[in-house]
## 1
Amino acid sequence: MSQHPEEGESSVNDETRAIEEVINAFMYYGKFGTEKILKTIQQMKLFSSSIDMISFFRNYPQDFQILVVNKNKEFVESMKQRIEHNHSILKMIANSASGMIGENHTKAFRIHQARRPTGEFLSKVLSTIRQICREWSSEGLPEREATFKPIIEELNSIFPTETERHNIRILVPGCGLGRLAHDLIEQGYTVQGNEFSYFMLFTSFFILNCCKEVDTFFEKPRVNFLFQVDQFTIYPYLFDKSNCWKSEDRLRGVTFPDKTLISSVTNRPNSFSMCAGDFLEIVKDTQFDAIVTAWFIDTANDIFKYIDAIYDALPENGIWINVGPLTWHFEDIAGEMSIELPYSDIMLRIRQKGFEIVSEKEIDSKYTVNRLSMLQNQFNCAYFYARKGGQKPQ
Amino acid sequence: MSQHPEEGESSVNDETRAIEEVINAFMYYGKFGTEKILKTIQQMKLFSSSIDMISFFRNYPQDFQILVVNKNKEFVESMKQRIEHNHSILKMIANSASGMIGENHTKAFRIHQARRPTGEFLSKVLSTIRQICREWSSEGLPEREATFKPIIEELNSIFPTETERHNIRILVPGCGLGRLAHDLIEQGYTVQGNEFSYFMLFTSFFILNCCKEVDTFFEKPRVNFLFQVDQFTIYPYLFDKSNCWKSEDRLRGVTFPDKTLISSVTNRPNSFSMCAGDFLEIVKDTQFDAIVTAWFIDTANDIFKYIDAIYDALPENGIWINVGPLTWHFEDIAGEMSIELPYSDIMLRIRQKGFEIVSEKEIDSKYTVNRLSMLQNQFNCAYFYARKGGQKPQ
């Protein structure tokens, strides 16, 4: 467990503390990066002292010695610049969250005490950066085409008339940085995104809304600010030391967003809302025409509860589209309940619950992969389209 | 750190302790498996108590209720049997090691006190089982074809006359369970395998030699015992709860060895030796005609030392063939030196050292993958064939 900051006032509640922990993790990135660089330099020194540098370099022509030394200096300098740059982006994200959580944000900053976050939280900061690439850069296009596109196409074939789609309410649980939700809005649907992680919520808020929130989150407010395509750059691969073909691969930047955001277009008949919190809580007493679970169902402690909640939140003939692997998030996590069922048992339960499986297929997709790495994690995802009640689809 | 057993006698040295730790890990497998099953049962109970079982099952026809209950019972029973079976194989491996390390084995068993191994050691037992599949079952054929076959073909095209190959001495560092070394023997070369891990050494000894060691390691000695193709079965996927399509996938067995072992053929002109220990130590003052590093160079604390050692152990025009990714084993391991260079910097150093790169390519390969899992780790491996001294190959 990470240490809690001192309680500043009696009104500091658990949520404020949770927010402060996330903000602390975002804000620590610069220092984390510096630690990483220092470690590399120390290792190089360890290496230098472990051998006789003079005899080592005797093998090289003098030009080469200068090249190696300069190349390393240049590389470290490039790393530093990019770490600072990433840090400034993460700071913007942490600051912009005020537009989303208001008073809690102010309180969190008031009690904030800079400290080293847990390894888990640091790794969440790094994966947030990777998630920006996956969802909002052209680098992530192959991953989005693999699993988001089939969902959108399926829905569009069910609802072919675009002008009527604003009546179709779709829920996207675990929507991450909101790209799938956003692209469904673009197709005309009325969409509610749902997300539990503040790392994702703050970052999606920054990407989706900051153009409307110009006065609050920039240190120097800019009027009429609008996101432009590829306006921002982020460096997601700086610390990918293993499985690297060449140093330059680690330095490359990725621009985002890769398209003009729909939030900059006003007067649409359909609406977009984002709901923070636990999926099982937010679906209570709410109805949707379709629920789209992409890379989501394996976040369940108890998959049966997810199935029940989805069933309850759909009307007769309501649509459930799912895609993703089953990398159970709570497997082997101490103190957490976790039912790691195989796909076939889940489908058995889904059918028994009262869904008809209209179609089922397998889709291969990567997830937040560095395409230049020697390691490429590939998922063989389960995709299905189901209807509540087993009536034939319209 | 795992606890050390009490010192039984003054002659118990570090090596005996190290061996005892590995034997303890092998011997703990059965208990580890039982722990895993108990956890699953507890989780199912937690699940049962968290909902009203009667209303839960009301949704199901009675036949189905019986099916579910029986199916689970049957599954747990199948798991238990297979865990016991794996345990008996691992016990055979631990026992057979006496033929390899003699007195140290006896001492290790004398001081042995059964206890829970570290997580790292338990995970090494599980990966040893996966390694058996990779190297010695037909399940591992695609992985061996991907990276072992190109090496063998390269060598055979350099040394086309099989009857002369016994004069060619090849070193295979980090040879794991010895399959690549074995297959090179089969082609007629004289081969020395080298391995540091006792998990690998004990298991390769069992596979490669136990047919010659029948009197010492079986509890009931069997005379004239010889390994037959597919004689043994092992269950490598029992604990793959995530990314599983159906329960039966976890239960499936893999048979080994997938071929008649060359060690059962006598009177060959070429010889096979296996050398336990640190690669950097064992290559000192030894010469080989070729060194084959497959999935090995990223085990280095200091890759420069590996390059120097390979250079020193080869004659002018000597051959170095390498294949594998760069998943640096000591990255982020506290207290360990680690230089995580990208491939291009390694190649720069190799050329500077005095190798000519004859050919270079990329090879895609998986590594100890469960082919029925939703997760398929794919490596984009670097392959090169180099010659010491930069003379054109013959």
## 2
Amino acid sequence: MGIIGMGRIGNVHYQNLLTFDDVSVKTICDILIDEVWKEKYPAVSTLVKDYHQILTDPEIDAVLICTPTDLHPQITIDAARAGKDIFCEKPVGFKNEDILEAYRVVNQMGVKFEVGFNRRFDKHFDRIVEYRDENRIGDPQLLKITSRDPEPPSLDYVEHSGGIFMDMTIHDFDMARFITGQEVAEVHVFGDILIDDRIRKFKDIDTAVISLKFVNGMLGVIDNSRKAVYGYDQRIELFGSKGVSRAENILNSETTFVGKEGALADTPMYFFLQRYKEAYAQELRSFFGAVRGEHPVACSFDDGVRAIRLAEAAKRSLLSGQVEKVAEIK
Amino acid sequence: MGIIGMGRIGNVHYQNLLTFDDVSVKTICDILIDEVWKEKYPAVSTLVKDYHQILTDPEIDAVLICTPTDLHPQITIDAARAGKDIFCEKPVGFKNEDILEAYRVVNQMGVKFEVGFNRRFDKHFDRIVEYRDENRIGDPQLLKITSRDPEPPSLDYVEHSGGIFMDMTIHDFDMARFITGQEVAEVHVFGDILIDDRIRKFKDIDTAVISLKFVNGMLGVIDNSRKAVYGYDQRIELFGSKGVSRAENILNSETTFVGKEGALADTPMYFFLQRYKEAYAQELRSFFGAVRGEHPVACSFDDGVRAIRLAEAAKRSLLSGQVEKVAEIK
Amino acid sequence: MGIIGMGRIGNVHYQNLLTFDDVSVKTICDILIDEVWKEKYPAVSTLVKDYHQILTDPEIDAVLICTPTDLHPQITIDAARAGKDIFCEKPVGFKNEDILEAYRVVNQMGVKFEVGFNRRFDKHFDRIVEYRDENRIGDPQLLKITSRDPEPPSLDYVEHSGGIFMDMTIHDFDMARFITGQEVAEVHVFGDILIDDRIRKFKDIDTAVISLKFVNGMLGVIDNSRKAVYGYDQRIELFGSKGVSRAENILNSETTFVGKEGALADTPMYFFLQRYKEAYAQELRSFFGAVRGEHPVACSFDDGVRAIRLAEAAKRSLLSGQVEKVAEIK
Amino acid sequence: MGIIGMGRIGNVHYQNLLTFDDVSVKTICDILIDEVWKEKYPAVSTLVKDYHQILTDPEIDAVLICTPTDLHPQITIDAARAGKDIFCEKPVGFKNEDILEAYRVVNQMGVKFEVGFNRRFDKHFDRIVEYRDENRIGDPQLLKITSRDPEPPSLDYVEHSGGIFMDMTIHDFDMARFITGQEVAEVHVFGDILIDDRIRKFKDIDTAVISLKFVNGMLGVIDNSRKAVYGYDQRIELFGSKGVSRAENILNSETTFVGKEGALADTPMYFFLQRYKEAYAQELRSFFGAVRGEHPVACSFDDGVRAIRLAEAAKRSLLSGQVEKVAEIK
């Protein structure tokens, strides 16, 4: 298979693929590639600057798209037309028409397509779904997602991120659907800039409380912050007629100290690549399982589109100050 | 002192007062009082059916008003005019004009007046305020309150409760102000009937997500359910620029069992009188401290009025489906 | 009923009895009693210096013996002969012959006798016994008791305490029997002075690891320290063929703070009267239930004697440096 | 480098080495090797049955010895004479004279030698050492190690294991030294067969409480069981004059469910390779760091010998029923 885009996330996937017995990375593609990279990636046979070289290689069955978001739809279209199965990082794109065109081509070509919502593969969150599927939680009534980054991205990143809802909350929107198995009907946002006023010029915010009303009547709330100084705060709680399931943070260690002044424990893991280390590997294992036809794709193009619509509804609610209906987003 | 209204909460206060060295309950008043009660309350000298008998007793300095809510304002007015210091159960009343009249008289007569928001005296919640006051949390940015009852009240109770916001969420509205030290500017509610459809005829709901925007820009959310089968779920979290403080539930025991099938722990305490046992005693200790002039009243008439306005804003938001501004509630 | 000895523990029991509807404290006895005490104990009708005045009062059914330990046997004998039911603080005495004589008289007179091992009434420890009785733990195999005081007693107290095993570990020896329902066969002690060298002159120690072999083959270990700076550390763990049950410490609050430097939680409750507050009340409720014939005495004279024999075995093991058999202690 | 012995632990090390950029496995050796293994180990250039082929290869700098324990000393001697740096699985051998001879040759040849006590590299246990080194714990006074396997090994394994102390407790003996930084002076054991009576024929036990007295006067206790049905129970606690540090178990997930019947959490990880997954990788990283001269070997031959002496003392104490002095074991 091949990887298109060797930035941070491309490298995460590359490292994980090295430990897979049944998948080999033949070609990697990046516009910055030069001779030195050969030493950096000894296990790879071909390094290219133009992703079309990957798409025309008949030995390559599947590609990972890890480029900047604005390139996702075009590469998806080209890869689908080349008959490759596709794993594409989230979000599937920025512009609605491009995304829908890519969706159409993927469906038409019948290739497999998976969106990289890594949190679906986290064993702690999956445990909530297990409790739900065992019908321990009963009828779901309330969903709560806490999702706070340890520190804000650079202003440069913010500028091209598509805004907090498209860049950060989109994971939570996907989890809202994944954890409950329900669709969201209405969205209301209270948002503010409480951390760094410089993002005002990008019309973005850094702190938000996003309320959800689901189609089946159940309620939900996501709280987001760009800066939780104590680490990456990622908790989910699903409450229903028979009980509640909660996924707590993963700490740097399970060791405590208790002295005269109080009890000390370690903070949550700080870095998302560390927190979701196993989930990233599991995500690719699942994708290649789907490529081999062992099971359906775990996170479909449709899932990618629906998460984007929730992000769009949130954006509109922030502007309007009122509730927005998801069905009205096309 | 005297107690007016010897229902459940009147009796809770009575039992607590028995253990106070420096306060004695001279008279209790209840419309149901009969001869048998003398044996039930041996420590009390006088039992009366008409609360005016308490108000005219010059030996009585202070009264506890524990009657149904609709009587609170009139008894408050009468007690204030009689020069008694007043502890009044929450909420201070139902009708706005009655409440404001009572407020006016209390101020005019200069008696001390405390509203019974017992959670302010819970050591676990107070610990959050301590962390805040020590400036460990930094600038507060997000408040989260989980407040779920173990089981819904009777339909009869619901009918006269004033609705979920006035009966149940009012505690959370008071905590929202108490924990943050900030005033709420805007309220948005998503609410639904997910537990028992029979409350629909009272135009009430049983599940709610209430988002808050504070005057200082910080955000908040309260989630309410009338039925958490696992017990009384009372958690608060205050997140700020320097960290987060969380108060967790109090369990029936700190003992666990771990076997092949998993680890078992006990559920949160089920009954509010058990959960807030110490807080109820502390609340009265504080009130009598204020009566003796040792410190100001901990929860003033103004606090009572402001909580009611938040409940009213929530009610309006549920009806309008949109954000309501608290300043517009008079 | 009457209380003999109004030191710290006598007063704890007195306060608890005030809240009991069905028990009234008629007389209290203390050699230090004077006129001022009448104001201090308004609920008591008689205050005496000589405990025989309690024993000869036909209106008094039961007595609490809360004097220094060396007086326990004689007062027990006198009270038993006067036909009173007896609650006696631990340990039942110091000298073996005195204890056995008191035991004989109690049996002969057929009065009820309970030893004040308050920890048997702690809901957290009782929960382990519940798990055991539900046969969740299976065959018990290992018992672990951590029992550490927050600070050492005064040297003066140490001198008359009977040594660490008789004063402090005796509670743990009783718990070893209570939690497992088994008898101890052999004891081995490693002990040392690691906190304050001044207790060496009393031939006492302040830190110990006490290993136990039970008659049924199961094993156990108690660790003791006179000084856990972080609070009163009281944990028990029972491990068996089907699982393990653990009782953890009770913290000053369930509120945490997580900041950049780590997560903070509160320390275990510091003072034993606070930690075991509910257990002390429950202990007396149980005693008076037994006095009224509702159930057998929960902690018998025999239990008191067996705990003392374990303390004696530990003392001998510390001296001999070897294993001591409990059956050889008479 | 080369690996000698490709059983379970040899394969664990092999998998970890695949992810190291700076180490390559040239040759693996196993007496069972055949043609099929070439496909199983594509990254390896040479597969041999005779370990001498590894020792004579000048391209190989270091070897991992992962054979059965009785072969460790001879291979160590041969590898040291061949000038290879050596990583040897625990224990370093069974027979005292063989071990001491190997030790002598290693010292004489000046090669680096590390014993595979993987728990030294566990981040949770290391955190205790960090707290100790920061002088937060103060003077260490008590060490407690809980070490329970999820299920007993096969009887066949037990027969050749060297007994519970040499096979299982040896890890705990090493941790006792590592966590405290102190040497053990005396050992006392209570042990029993409480799980499976069939091991009686090998004169082994399955449950033990091992008390320790350290040279500096501090005390310790290890409890061992061959069968904790709920998973691999690995906890350590170090208590001192200024506080206590505790490393708790790692659970299968940090997700809970709370329903009417109680709260459920996941069990500790069951399998030692899963529990210590990161520690095994870290152990090798450290060894190759030492081989490259970046830091001293983290766990020396002397550490290996001292752990064996503690195991021997425990064995003697079980037989004698009394305390054994470690200094008397040669």
## 3
Amino acid sequence: MKLFIKNGTFITMNGNETIKDGYMVVENEFIQYIGKEKPVENDYDQIIDGSNRIYMPGLVNTHNHAAMSLLRGYADDLALQIWLEDYMWPMEAKFTSEEVRWGTFLSILEMIKGGTTCFVDMYDHMDVVAQAVETSGMRACLTRGMIGFGGKEVQDAKLNEAKTFAKNWHGKANGRITTMMSPHAPYTCPPEFIDKIVQAASELQLPIHTHMSETRHEVLENEKQYGFRPVAHLQKLGVFDQSCLVAHAVHLTDEEIGILKEHSVHISHNPGSNLKLASGIARLPELMKEGILVSLGTDSAASNNNLDMFEEVRLAALIHKGNTFDPTAIPAVDALRLGTIDGARSIWLNDVGMLKEGMKADFISVNSNQAHLLPKSDVISHIVYSASASDVVDVWVDGKQLVKNKELLTLDEERIKYEFNACFERLTT
Amino acid sequence: MKLFIKNGTFITMNGNETIKDGYMVVENEFIQYIGKEKPVENDYDQIIDGSNRIYMPGLVNTHNHAAMSLLRGYADDLALQIWLEDYMWPMEAKFTSEEVRWGTFLSILEMIKGGTTCFVDMYDHMDVVAQAVETSGMRACLTRGMIGFGGKEVQDAKLNEAKTFAKNWHGKANGRITTMMSPHAPYTCPPEFIDKIVQAASELQLPIHTHMSETRHEVLENEKQYGFRPVAHLQKLGVFDQSCLVAHAVHLTDEEIGILKEHSVHISHNPGSNLKLASGIARLPELMKEGILVSLGTDSAASNNNLDMFEEVRLAALIHKGNTFDPTAIPAVDALRLGTIDGARSIWLNDVGMLKEGMKADFISVNSNQAHLLPKSDVISHIVYSASASDVVDVWVDGKQLVKNKELLTLDEERIKYEFNACFERLTT
């Protein structure tokens, strides 16, 4: 299969490069050519006129709990601990694999159509999640989130489940699925359980993904319970000796930033969720200045409440300017990097996130002939400051087209909505 | 003309009322009935099945400079004074009435299709702006913004132009257009010029609209130049003795909040623009606690960079939570009120902004059968935390349908884009 796109505008994320009236050739799953010069070959299976389209790498969402779309709008405007313990957990306790299946499918539907080509998911019933990803054609890094309440036997069962899942699915779906090991958070996992998970991750040679330092409350409680703030606590438990992606990291001291840098810990910044749950505003400018690898996540639809990665990119570009009185904090192209190439690198993928020869063809097109994306001035600015998920027209992952003219090709959208609504009815009656 | 909508979900903005499977009757420009009970009459000119639609009041954008859409993406990530003086003003100096016409039309196109039914515009060549509003069918409160540089003669000419415009257009287009008088800002208008504008507003019995206390720099310079911060300065000049809408009001002391309250000054909060220009985060929770009438504005597309009022509503709901660590700050329904009914009240319109019998029929429909707006739980939450301009399907203003199934009925979209792009080419070559 050989695809030729002509006359397109390409945001490559190779530095701040933008190619206007350019050309791209995709052969099977790889980008074979991209550039300003028209390639000489003309033996293509498909030719697309890319006029009025901006092509860019698919967005990478590095923190989500996809099934929780079932709880979108169920409880808002509450503090994280109350929201989690009094609202989310009791409802989630009712989730069977059916709820996880259709909740995840609905999120996948929203994400793909909105230009997200790859996501991180931490949840349970992960076989169902992996099957949904496989069917959809998306790319994902999946992990069974382990909450350590309920004693040693429950913990052991969860750990075995997490290990089995991680082994079974790592590298599957033509390499589109990778896996991680996940203690849910220092406040939900006793140290000895985290210790075991770290050992398992080391044996399996898999990265660790966890929540960390999301709220002030969490940091204070950690100090009270264990004598250390979360960063030092996890460091002592060897979490950072593994490859590690932490979500949130809102409340960090300079010293903690130093520790995270030293251990090459990756951070998934979740600005929308952090604002909505009033967790605070992460120190993104400082983290980036230190060269820490930061990416963006929506968190679940229960705390965001959409899965629009354009919005997370925009929030990352906007809130740190307003919060620091520095209009040069997080320039547009840097924010877009967090949502694309740095998202891919955050989950140790080196062959997606950029439009470049030899990279896998995970990319999207945006309709640029709309009022809010005119005039044809700075397209990176338009994507960051003005575009949204609904501007996405076409989506390819691994060289395969998943969305064509806003229609999802791999899944039955009406069936997903029907089953999802039925799950919600069951949960709430 | 009598329109009947059945089986719709209605967010009325009458308190936090939501009517599911409800009915609305619109006769000419007025809402004749809205409720849960099916009305007995059945002699309608048009019947719409509102299943899978959320109906709500059109959004009211209380601060904009519509023609500046021509400068979208022209200069980003710069401080307000540099952005304004080195980039915006030199480009705006090239604007003729043609640039104002097509820049304004493009903004109107974006706003109407995105569910904004009424906007405030402060600019020049205002006859052209008013004509565009009249043709489009939108509602607007328009004002010739006066920058006082250039000496007394220039000031007098501007003031005369502003007065003539305000008199000619106030109440026109079936009452859809109202007018105000606008000194641009305390930092661009000498006190004696502001004084004259206040006198004119008093004579014409029109409100005053101005920028105020947008940046720390502005506040400090005002103190240095005039011995007072902007609030006291404008108070002394009698600005607050008129009905008054100030844009921004980011940097306020408790005492200043007291002065604004005492004078019933209305505030247009512009969260997106304030973040992007790094002006800071306004004290919205305190302003609302004091009962000051606050509404929302996008500011121009040069500093936002879109005119999506759903995004301003969402930012108002989100950033103050994150900034104050209080998840109950600005609940969803309060944020939506700022963007609808309080927007209308902010510009002294008492017959729009709410779906209620006797109110004018300025309303929109949103397609609720989309992944990011499911499940059918809390629709106000979905509108505030998940919806965007692109979810709008139909728009009515004054009982007249302006957008039908995402197509604008009153203007030629392709012609507008063509002329707009031509203006941009002329400006930049």
